[in-house]
Please model this.
Amino acid sequence: MRVLRGVLAVLLLGLLLWFVDWRAVLGILQRAEPGWLLLAAGLLVAQTAVSALRWRLVAARLGQRIAMGHALREYFLAQAGNMALPGGVAGDAARAVRARAEVGLERAGMAVVLERAAGQVALVVVTAVGVGAVTLVPGGMEVPGAVIWVLLLVVGGVGLTLVGLSRMAGQRAAVARWRQGVRVAILAREVRGLQAGLSLGTVALNLVAFWAAAAAVGVWLPLGAALVVLPLVLFAMLVPLTVGGWGLREGAAVALFPLAGASGAEGFAASAAFGAVFTLTALVGLILMLRPVRVA
Model:
């Protein structure tokens, strides 16, 4: 699977480079500004730290104590694993397995799943708000109908899933435990504001990092376009068909960046710059893995 995902990524990248003219992409990347790339890297490291904080909060609400240094190390490891291993979530699964000692595998897995789900829901919300805003504002960016329909299907699918699981909770004890976990760790009055802030913070840091990567290659996205185009491109990374989202992310960028007045080649270059920075920051996890730390 790892080999097939890598081959698919290479094939997609090759086809896209042929489609947009690889010479144009190479010329754009050669003019990349290191300062903007460093800013993107710093924002992505900050995003990982905020995500680790969110995991600690969810885990604490479920009775699991995780030291911040350990949480950060584990999160970097999970990111590196997600990029390298089949399925795109293997790193998170391993994070849950390594954290099972105190509360058991189910509770540790619940903490990881709920933490990641909170971030994805925040991304959906930001995307929906961005698309709605530019669609309703007179003279705003014209979003293709297919994009709106796909977004509506995603939002509807999430809603139907939640309703279905809620109804199943009365019949299945395992589902009831997960529903209670959501109530305690995500929706409880004393933490829901903080959870929303952390999740929206991770999305914001990701988007600004992508915006900085685009700026590094000379693509300047206005706010409205950034709130629509960049979240949709990030969605492509969630599809576990290639390694680290490579190829799928660039394909989405080639298709969507023209909505913001950029060319397909500029979209490819911006996405590739972001992907390279994201990969390098995730590799910090591999470095940390070689340096054992004492868990407090």
